[in-house]
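Data deposition worksheet. Section B asks for the primary sequence of the deposited chain exactly as it was used as input, without tags or linkers unless they were present during the calculation. Section C holds the resulting structure in token form. Section D is free text for depositor observations; keep each observation to a single sentence. Incomplete worksheets are returned to the depositor.
Section A, Depositor: J.P.
Section B:
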Amino acid sequence: MNEEMPFDVPQGMSFSVFDHYNRGRFFYANAQVLEKKQSWHEYGWCINAAVYSCQAIYEIIYSHVDNPDNPEGRWHGFIGEYKANVRHYDLIGSYRVQDFHRGAIALLPGCTTMHGPVVLKTSKQRGSSATFLVDEGKKISKTKRNASIKFNRPISTHNTKIEANNGEMLSALDMIKEYLEDLHELLKKRAPTYDWGEGFE
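Section C:
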């Protein structure tokens, strides 16, 4: 019997944003549990999955509002608010690029890693030099006489923490939590008919 069963499939912009937001919360909550159990591989996987959904929210909205065929609606103007108010949005974007496209990021105790291309250039000037190293997750660079060091969306980690843009080492859980907290307020205003849940513990 090949009879089609009728059912409703949730779809549309607001549902897509809502679904990825809740996936992010789900994987964040599971990462909290796994951190307490010290199940580090699985912890990292949940952090990565949370990051993917966090970045998906931005990419879905950006694709929608960037399409000139879509009429202006509730999500237009969101990207500017997002970049002005959501902590770690660029760190989330860089993390996703590195882990998904360039090499798996593992957040493990005692492990220090650096992800992303680094280009060191020196000039023909005598004494020109460029030095780069990672010390407990913090990028340290030094240049002399017209030398340069160029990073491409770098992610450096140490002991399950990630270097934030201000140079401080940040818990991956805190990165996700602060991102979702800030996003929560913006999403509630844009799509108030959805139940975005309460704040974070």
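Section D:
The chain has five helices and eight strands.
The radius of gyration is 20 Å.
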